[in-house]
Design a protein that fits this description.
This protein is of the alpha/beta class and 185 residues long. The protein has one domain: 2-Layer Sandwich (Double Stranded RNA Binding Domain), CATH 3.30.160. Helices cover 28% and strands 39% of the residues. It has helices spanning 2-21, 57-76, 166-176; strands spanning 27-32, 43-46, 80-81, 88-103, 106-114, 117-125, 128-143, 149-159. The N and C termini lie far apart (62 Å).
Length: 185
């Protein structure tokens, strides 16, 4: 009986580790200039992007969604958009990479018992390969007076058509800006 409990505990641990390893939650990272009190800023404006105005219509539509989501997040944190006298400038960049995800050969074992009966099963999975695209969004906050970057945040994850709708873009922007400080009162 002790061996069965030990084996069951090991199987639960392996299943938990496997679940963690296959998680597809978006990756997030941010950094702040330690000498800058971002919460002391009052307003923001958009830093013109290089080559702004160029591109095709789908890029412009996605651009509008990203800008709307960033603006909503920043105003929700107490900042106001003020092109005349901004405290900081906001810009962003996106990248898209082709990636390959492989799932190795795997074997699953199950064991259980009830009222003195013991049963078990074995499952064998074949290796698989999946091609996908990984998108990254990087949002920058730049001090308007010094033109120095004072903060950036990134989010990366698997991208498909549904990742480009307004709600998905807003979620991605929220993750990228999750560490951006609220404005001080």
């Amino acid at each position: 009986m002790r061996l069965t409990l030990k084996t069951a505990g090991l199987l639960v641990l392996l299943c938990a580790l496997a679940a963690c390893a296959t998680s597809s939650a978006p990756g997030h990272e941010s950094q702040k200039d330690p000498g800058t009190d971002i919460a002391a800023y009052r307003s923001f404006a958009w830093q013109p992007a290089l080559g702004e105005g160029a591109g095709d219509q789908p890029t412009r539509l996605l651009d509008a969604r990203i800008r709307d989501a960033i603006q909503a997040e920043l105003t929700g944190r107490g900042y106001v958009e003020d092109a005349a006298s901004p405290g900081f400038l906001v810009t962003y960049e996106t990248t898209l990479k082709d990636k390959v995800k492989s799932s190795p050969f795997r074997i699953g074992l199950g064991m259980g018992g009830f009222s003195g009966n013991v049963g078990g099963s074995v499952n064998v999975g074949t290796p698989s390969v999946k091609n996908y695209q990984e998108g990254t969004l990087v949002i920058h906050a730049i001090d308007a007076a010094t033109r120095r970057e004072v903060w950036y945040g990134t989010v990366s994850g698997e991208v498909d058509r549904s990742s480009l709708d307004a709600a998905a873009v807003a979620r991605a922007v929220g993750i990228a800006l999750q560490d951006f400080p609220r404005r001080a009162p």
